[in-house]
Structure formats: C-alpha cells, structure tokens
Amino acid sequence: MPVPLYQAKAEFFRMLGHPVRIRVLELLQTGPTPVRELLADIEIEPSSLSQQLGQLRRAGLVTATREGSTVVYALAGADVADLLRAARRILTELIQDQGVLLAELRASD
Amino acid sequence: MPVPLYQAKAEFFRMLGHPVRIRVLELLQTGPTPVRELLADIEIEPSSLSQQLGQLRRAGLVTATREGSTVVYALAGADVADLLRAARRILTELIQDQGVLLAELRASD
DNA sequence: TCCTTAGTTGCAAATGTCTTCAAGTCGCCG
DNA sequence: CGGCGACTTGAAGACATTTGCAACTAAGGA
User: Fold this and answer.
1) Could you say which nucleotides of strand D lie within 7 A of any protein CB atom?
2) CA distances from residue B106 to A55, A56, B92, B96, B102 in whole angstroms, order as listed
3) Which site from A11, A20, B2, B72 is most exposed, i.e. has the minimal number of CB atoms within 10 Å?
4) What is the set of domains in chain B, with CATH numbers?
C-alpha cells in the first residue's frame, strides 16, 4: 500500500515551505552553486544552512558533490526545475492579485 | 517595505503542506461544497476540519458562505484553481518519477 | 605534522503547528 | 421560547520544526 497521494503532496509542499529552502532552490535554478556562495546570498549561520540543505538532499530535490575543499549543490532533476518555474510564475501572479485585493479592501473602509 | 517574495512563497507553500488542507482544496476544485460533505470525504473530527478551514480562509484561498443551517466553502478565485491544477499535474509526474527512481534503487542492491 | 578553512552533525532550547475537548454561535423546527 | 443540528472558537497538551552552539571530518597549505 503506497503513501496516499495527498500525503505525498503535502510533504512535498511542506518541503518548499521554508524561506531558506525556497531561496536555495531559486539560487540553484541558475546552475550548480557552491555552499560558500549560497551562504553569501542568504544571511544565515552555516550550520543552519547545512540543516536545510540536508533536508533538501534527503527529500531528493538537490544533490551535493564535493569538489576539492568546497561542496557544490545542484537541482536533482529537470522536473524540480520545471516545478519551480511553474510555481514561481503562478505564485507571482497570485501574490500580485492578492496585493490588488488588499489595496481594494483598504480603499473601501 | 513589503514582505519579501521568498517569504510569501514559503508561507503559501506551507499552507498547502498539510494533508487535510490539500484534500479540501482538491475537493473544492469540483465546485462549492458544504462542510458536511467535506466531513464525509475526509475522516477527521469536525472541529479539526474547522481549524484547517479557518486557516485556508484566513490565507484567502477559500471563501465560506452560510446557506441556511449549513456552510458552503468554495475556492476563492480562478488563480487558486489554476495553481492547484498546475501543482497537481507537475507533482503527479514528479512522484511517478520518484517512484521509478525508488524502484531502480531497490533493484540495484 | 599542525593549522586553517569549508561544511556537516548532534543536541538542547525556543518556536510553531496539530489535535482535541469544552464551550459558544447561528438557524430552524416544534 | 427551548432544544437540536451544524459549525466555529478557545485553549491546553502533544508533537514537529528551527535555531545556534559545540564538536567533528575533510582538504589544503605552511
């Protein structure tokens, strides 16, 4: 008996539901990136970033490879990139709409 | 200064990151639905469902309207439906791929 | 070999989220 | 009005996630 689909979905979304993880995934969209660079872009303690990277790794969304003294992360597959692009597009629209909605709500008091 | 986009995204995904909320949203995709019916499809305590519905409401993803003695929920906008469709499609693929991957991993031990 | 830099891991404290139970509101029927 | 069914709300306890410090490993130098 497999994990119900709705539960797999929920887990997946939960994995995306953290600011640091989202930022990492978006940074990786531009190509494989060493930890050092992620660390420079996201202000956070190294150990904390490592924990989040660990989660993404265990979820199979990213891969890590050691290159000399640095570790380089990359998106695990094209699917992941596709999903992120779609999510990004739709969400950007959605949030803009919500912004408009909010503005209307404020205007009508 | 607005909420950073990546944080809004994270919040949004977190909202989708719960099995009950996902199921509710998917049930609502087929049209406005009374609580009674959600309750029949999702096995859960009424008060627990209410809590989750409350979150979806506060997040602006669904709307509630009272009709006589029952309350009917609906998706808040076409955007939400779009996003769910896209998420559903991409995720279904992704999960199938992961399944394949898993099978391969198991086969190669 | 010893030191330093780059990351990761183990934990415990702080925070956040879920579930549940008890109590409350809103319609409706008798 | 009084009571019942359909939901919602508040609050507490259980449970999960996040953070930060300290200890640890791996790779290069000096």
Assistant:
1) 5-11, 17-23, 26-28
2) 21, 21, 21, 15, 6
3) B2
4) 5-107 (1.10.10.10)
